[in-house]
Each structure stands twice: as C-alpha cells, then as structure tokens.
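Tokens for chain A. Residues wanted.
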C-alpha cells in the first residue's frame, strides 16, 4: 500500500463483525482501538479486558 502510514512496519489487525477493519501496532493498541470501536459504533457496555483479549486471540492477524 503506497503511502500507508504503517508501510514497512508489521501491524496487527482484525475485522469487526460489522465489517470494520481495525488496525494497530500491537495487540495492546489493538485492544484499545477495539474497545473504542465497540463503545462508539455498537454502544457496547462494559466489556472486560479478558473478553477483548479473547476476541483478539481468536481473530487478530499480522498485516
């Protein structure tokens, strides 16, 4: 991807069930971004760090 801010840097990503692509530099940042996405777009109430970590473990991949 020419001009992509992560060009040359390995990133972690996952696709939300709504189809949104979420990407970050590592799993910790991905957890933060996923929480923000769920809270904003899905009005997800309190979701535990453990649940977010489970989702990341099951669905995240390197990009």
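Reply:
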């Amino acid at each position: 991807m020419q001009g992509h801010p992560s060009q040359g840097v390995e990133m972690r990503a996952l696709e939300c069930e709504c189809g949104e692509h979420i990407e970050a530099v590592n799993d910790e940042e991905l957890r933060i971004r996923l929480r923000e996405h769920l809270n904003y777009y899905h009005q997800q109430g309190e979701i535990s760090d453990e649940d977010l970590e489970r989702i990341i473990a099951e669905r995240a991949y390197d990009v």
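The two ends are 11 Å apart (CA to CA). The mean pLDDT is 89.
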